[in-house]
Amino acid sequence: MAELIAHACYGIDIGGTKIELVACDAAMQVTWRRRVATPQGDYAGFLQAVVALVAEADAALGRSDAAIGIALPGVRD
User: Fold this and answer.
1) Per-residue pLDDT tens digits for 7-19
2) What is the mean pLDDT of residues 3-30?
3) Cα–Cα distance list, 59 to 17, 37, 55, 65, 77 (Å)
4) Nearest to 53 by CA among 65, 35, 71
5) Are 66 and 9 in contact (CB under 8 A)?
6) Does 1 score more than 60 pLDDT?
7) Phi and psi dihedrals of 58, rounded to 5?
8) SS3 57
9) Rounded to an integer, what distance in angstroms lies between the CA atom of residue 58 and that of residue 19?
10) Which of 2, 14, 56, 71 has the most CB atoms within 10 Å of its CB?
């Protein structure tokens, strides 16, 4: 695990109204953050929103090897 954190890690918080991705450096300091609305009643749109956030973070930070942690407190139908 320490090897993964030494590079970068993303945390994704998925909620009923928003999806937020934060990128942290090796010292666990937030280096990038973005929030988008959670698509309602659209599973494909939901997946695309998560993929787009990761792709945007990768492009902004010039990487594609970050470990990803996801927080999903409950599923909203």
Assistant:
1) 679 999 999 899 9
2) 85
3) 25, 20, 6, 11, 31
4) 35
5) yes
6) no
7) -55, -45
8) helix
9) 17
10) 14
- Do the Cβ atoms of 46 and 38 come closer than 8 Å? yes
Angle, alpha carbons 65-30-19 (nearest 5°): 80
Tokens at residue 24, please? Answer: 């942290």
Query: Of all helices (H) and strands (E), which one includes residue 43?
Result: helix 43-61
Amino acid at 4: L
Backbone angles phi, psi at 34, to 5 degrees: -150, 145
Helix (H) or strand (E) holding 55: helix 43-61
10, 68 Cβ separation under 8 angstroms: yes
The pLDDT of 52-74, averaged and rounded, is 90
Burial 6-43 (b: 16+ CB within 10 A, else e): eebbbbbebeeeebbbbbbeeeeeeeeeeeeebeeeee
